[in-house]
Design a protein that fits this description.
Elements: H1 13-34, H2 41-48, H3 52-55, H4 62-84, H5 92-108, H6 110-119, H7 128-151, H8 159-178, H9 180-186, H10 189-205
Length: 209
């Protein structure tokens, strides 16, 4: 599934990257406050620090901004995960560390992740499959970790269970952002990570008995 190129009339790649970074930052704040549909391109341009005319040198339509926002957020989450999560060890400790690191990434990017999930439905039918596939690739990282643990005899899971547990881990991380208004009153991030990891492990390890 190939990435959709967003046309720009400017040819300087460094300038395109700089302006789109400004655009993404401004748009995230606006989408969080007002939502995608209620935000105007003029507001995005103002929040980005340039004119509406300049904005249209780097995009063709407002939906391009949302696509760039979602694409960037997924890339940032994935890059941070790939940098610090070991998918090859297949030990109980590496599994727990992977969960903790992923939850912490979501905590750091919770505004971005919340905006993405609130607004991803507004993407065009051409853009949506590409963006959603990027999420499946990240779920696949946890599938690989679980498979390695199974290979090493740490867990006893079949293919269906591996896929479901990988999705469970992914959603539990996101829940810290989605339900933060309630969860932050009850747990610290470290407490949440410890409790969720214990519950996940209980479900997995009970499979062995």
């Amino acid at each position: 599934m190939s990435k959709r190129e967003v046309p720009a009339s400017v040819k300087d790649e460094r300038l395109i990257k700089k302006r789109r970074n400004q655009m993404i930052k401004g748009a995230i704040a606006l989408f969080k406050q007002k939502g995608f549909h209620r935000t105007t391109t003029r507001e995005i341009a103002k929040a980005s620090g340039f004119s509406i005319g300049t904005l249209y040198e780097y995009i063709r339509q407002k939906e391009d901004v949302l696509y760039l926002v979602c694409d960037r957020i997924y890339d940032e989450v994935r890059e941070r995960m790939e940098k610090d999560i070991d998918t090859h060890q297949g030990t109980l400790e590496s599994f727990k560390l992977a969960i903790a690191h992923y939850f912490k990434v979501i905590d750091e990017l919770q505004d971005e992740v919340l905006v993405m999930y609130q607004e991803v439905k507004s993407l065009s039918k051409e853009s949506l499959p590409y963006v959603l596939n990027k999420e499946l690739q990240m779920v696949g990282m946890f599938e690989n970790i679980l498979k390695k643990c199974v290979d090493n005899g740490v867990f006893c899971l079949n293919e269906q269970e591996i896929r479901l547990f990988a999705h469970n881990i992914f959603v539990l991380g996101q829940m810290w952002g989605f339900r933060r208004w309630a969860l932050h009153k009850m747990y610290t991030l470290d407490e949440y990570i410890e409790l969720q990891t214990d519950l996940l492990l209980k479900g997995i390890l009970e499979k062995r008995s």
